[in-house]
């Protein structure tokens, strides 16, 4: 497989993910009724030029895993979907479960210079296939930006934020993997698709 083909495929996947996120965002803007009175809790976290989280519509309410972090942060993994392009997209919700405002630790971005220069993110996350003895790191686009939620910062008490992370896909026979995010406990999730 040529480098040009691989780069073109990655750009296509990024464009598809962004287009799907925008389509769901536009569809979710309509409506009325009681939902209009709820405060928008995610605007203060995602005001920077970070990437949009992928859609989480129609996912089960029971999380696949709950990862506890410092200062009351809770990362609930709601889905891990394998696609035909050779990627696994992990969706979840980051919540400040404490009674005070907290800052998402900068360690969640990992320690790679190229990812850190793109701002606070979940770029340090990994999937671990213990049977295959492999670790899968968050993918990057052609400009070195991590394919994960970026622009993380201060979270108010009780605030939630939808998040996503995209990884290379483990072999098709691998369904159970551990997810690890710096400063959070690890958990085992099942990949579907």
Radius of gyration: 16 Å
The largest β sheet comes out as:
4 strands, antiparallel
By CATH's scheme, which homologous superfamily applies? Immunoglobulins
Domains (count): 1
CATH architecture title: Sandwich
Count of runs of 4 or more consecutive helical residues: 2
Arithmetic mean pLDDT = 79
How many extended strands? 10
**Order of neighbouring strands in the sheet with most strands:** 1-2-3-8
| Highest-level CATH class | Mainly Beta
Gross morphology: globular
SSE layout:
Elements: H1 3-28, E1 65-68, E2 73-82, E3 87-96, E4 102-103, H2 113-116, E5 126-129, E6 134-137, E7 154-155, E8 160-168, E9 176-180, E10 187-190
Antiparallel strand pairs: 1-2, 2-3, 3-8, 4-7, 5-6, 5-9, 9-10
Describe the protein.
The protein is an alpha+beta fold and 193 residues long. It has a single domain (3-190), classed as Sandwich (Immunoglobulin-like). 16% of the residues lie in helices and 28% in strands. The protein contains 2 helices and 10 strands. The strands form 3 sheets. The protein has a 4-stranded antiparallel β-sheet, with no helix packed on it. The chain has a 4-stranded antiparallel β-sheet with strand order 6-5-9-10, with no helix packed on it. A hairpin with a 6-residue loop joins strand 9 (176-180) and strand 10 (187-190). The longest helix is centred in the N-terminal third of the chain and has 26 residues, at 3-28. The two termini are 24 Å apart. Mean pLDDT is 79; it is low at 29-59. This is Secreted protein. Residues 1-29 form the signal peptide. Residues 30-62 are annotated as: Disordered.
